[in-house]
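Support reply, case 0932

Customer input (verbatim):
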Amino acid sequence: KSEAQQAVFDLVAAGADPEVFRRRFQRRSDLEAATASAVGAGLDGLARRYAPDGLLYAAADFQSWYGSAWYGYWLVGPEEKRTARDGSDYSAGEFQRYFGAGWAAEWKAAPPAIQRRFAADGEAYTMEDFVKYFRGSWQIEWAAAAEIPDGCAGYNQETCKGPMAARCRWKWSGDWMDSCVPAPLASQQGQVYV
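Our regenerated output:
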């Protein structure tokens, strides 16, 4: 029973379409084929995840590149997020729950989110930074790191250094929209890492 429960949990985490899974599995009793079809059809096929190379791919791309091992790679790949009109970052599944019937159009119109997490040194880094620094183990490090909701993005320098200074700091990137970044974790400040 626990094996079946884990399989259901994994299908939900993978963004599978339950109706596609049910129909496909009833027809052929092939768990792998039903899983591949259901994940590919889930979220209107718009969901993408980050592969070990740090790039985004759809489920069909994972299936063709990784063959029979695709599902494991899909499950550990971080989900793509986009920034909604409210300024918050959401995955495709979260867009679907938030926007309802019109979610796909909102998803397509939304810009990609810049995802950040706190590394062991207490500093905030983007996913791209994790890929460059940790290389082959970046997904493991990313999964272990604390997620940072994008609560600092979009503030100008004055606001970032003023009312938001307790949780944000100014780090000029060349674009003021993403130069206000989360401050280091208070518990990590002043520590030196070698």
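We compared this against your earlier run and they match. Two observations from our side: The longest helix spans residues 2-13. The chain is about 45% helix and 15% strand. Please reopen the case if you see a mismatch on your end.
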